[in-house]
Amino acid sequence: MGATTSVHRTIDAVWRMESAKVIAALARYTRDVGLAEEMAQDALVAALEQWQAEGVPKNPGAWLMTTAKRRAIDQIRRRENFNRKVEEIGREVQEATPDASEGVDDEIGDDLLSLIFTACHPVLGTEARVALTLKMLGGLKTEEIARAFLVSDSTVAQRIVRAKKALSDAGVPFEVPEGPELATRLASVLEVIYLIFNEGYSATQGDDWMRPELCAEALRLGRVLAELAPKEAEVHSLVALMEIQASRSKARTGPGGEPVLLLEQDRGKWDWLLIGRGLKALERAEALNQPPGPYYVQAALAACHGRARRAEDTDWQRIATLYEVLGRISPSPIVELNRAVALSMAFGPAAGLALVDEISGAKALQGYHLLPSVRGDFLLKLGRAEEAKAEFEKAAKLTRNEREKTLLLERAAACGN
Amino acid sequence: MRFMVFVRSPKPLAALHTDALLRAGVLLDSGDLVPHAFGVTGYWLIDVRSREEAVERVKRIPLPACVVEIRQVAVV
């Protein structure tokens, strides 16, 4: 019994390590990601049977690869679809069988990259892209994805089936996009990875352990992508952003699970190893000398905090400048509001207030509680307590979060009469 | 979960192939330790999903005549 579970766990580990490579290599021949994934699953079932009886082979990755390729041939034959594909794969298996271990890692890069781009193809909806990526690239089981996203197994299974069908219906080619298409396709990939990360990051105490695990999953995917596409600055930037955000995971909630604001966090609880990794990834992005993209600016902002051992060491001038850059890349009143806060930290509350008053008419900020809350803060610092009080009360009315409401009313009360 | 992999090798550690760990996105850190009676020593810090994965990943690295110890890093 004990031996069985131990073999099971080893097979699980091997699967997670190898499945993406197996699916990617198969997809190159079958030109059908869905079929490739099925064949890889079949190989896993075969592995479970055989390895439990005979032990895990010396090179389990090559075993899975060869078995899956044989299954692919069988399957295609069974479908009476004799065409060139069969011969191609046949030849490949013959060549690969003696020792498929060599070179598997070296030639697989392009296939893996193609698989990532296919799983994150914009023809698919966000949820489908996320599910397919975790399943095919992360090697997660359907039920693990379901638990991580708090949905039922059948929901995830359906998403995956539909996604595979949509890819095949749309005739999405299994390849790495080139030219002008590359930028939008890459953006789609990065979006999926960051979504997975944020889903894990938003997990709260008491959630299934699979949820925070999504952060680690996204980080690994990002790092893998950075090795596969080392010349893309935005990939390194996203990795930097995730490493630095992840570094704060132990400091960002208090003992009761309540959120702790960045500037109030105990920086001793930050993971400085991850911060160091994030800063290094950011350097790699900078060394490529590409125009700053949205992930670069966000990572650079996170790095400003990551470089400060104490909150008071934060380089607010640089933060204000970065928000200005971000405002040019993706203009938004929220970004401007953040810039106002940075300006006030760097140059005093009057500088912040000037910008807030400039943007307060923006449509997107109407009804947004942080606008009066930030404005109140600046006014209070400027000694205009009465006006500040009114702003805090306004903010308290706008927020839907009870904890925040209490906090704002307390601040209003502290302003005196 | 994180694992510290201690390697004692008769050859310089730089000659060992850790590419696979890097490409898999699991290598967080690596470094040399002060030489040991046995030979050169160093460590890899990896972030993987299970103890079995740590073992499987290290098993794939050719480590001729090396002594390897894999220890899980405690979560504080």
Q: What would you say this structure looks like, in words?
A:
The complex is a heterodimer of chains A (417) and B (76). In chain A, 71% of the residues lie in helices and 0% in strands. Chain A has 417 residues and is mainly alpha-helical. Among the domains of chain A are: 102 residues, Rna Polymerase Sigma Factor, Chain: A, CATH 1.10.1740; 101 residues, Winged helix-like DNA-binding domain superfamily/Winged helix DNA-binding domain (Arc Repressor Mutant, subunit A, Orthogonal Bundle), CATH 1.10.10; 81 residues, no CATH class. In chain A, α6 crosses α8. With 76 residues, chain B is α+β, with helices and mostly antiparallel strands. Chain B has a single domain, classed as 2-Layer Sandwich (Alpha-Beta Plaits). The interface between A and B is medium-sized, with 24 and 21 residues.
- The Cα radius of gyration of chain B reads 12 Å
N-C termini distance of chain B:
12 Å
**How is the biggest beta sheet of chain B arranged?**
4 strands, antiparallel
Query: How are helices and strands ordered from N to C of chain B?
Result: EHEEHE
Give the count of helical stretches of chain A: 19
Query: What proportion of the residues of chain A is helical, as a percent range?
Result: over 70%
Beta-strand proportion of chain B: 35-45%
Mean pLDDT of chain B: 88
Let me know the largest β-sheet of chain A. Answer: none
Instruction: Name the shape of chain A in a single word.
Output: elongated
**What is the N-to-C succession of helices and strands of chain A?**
HHHHHHHHHHHHHHHHHHH
Question: Keywords for this structure?
Answer:
heterodimer; A: 417 residues; mainly alpha; Rna Polymerase Sigma Factor, Chain: A; Arc Repressor Mutant, subunit A; elongated; B: 76 residues; alpha+beta; Alpha-Beta Plaits; 2 helices; 43% strand; globular
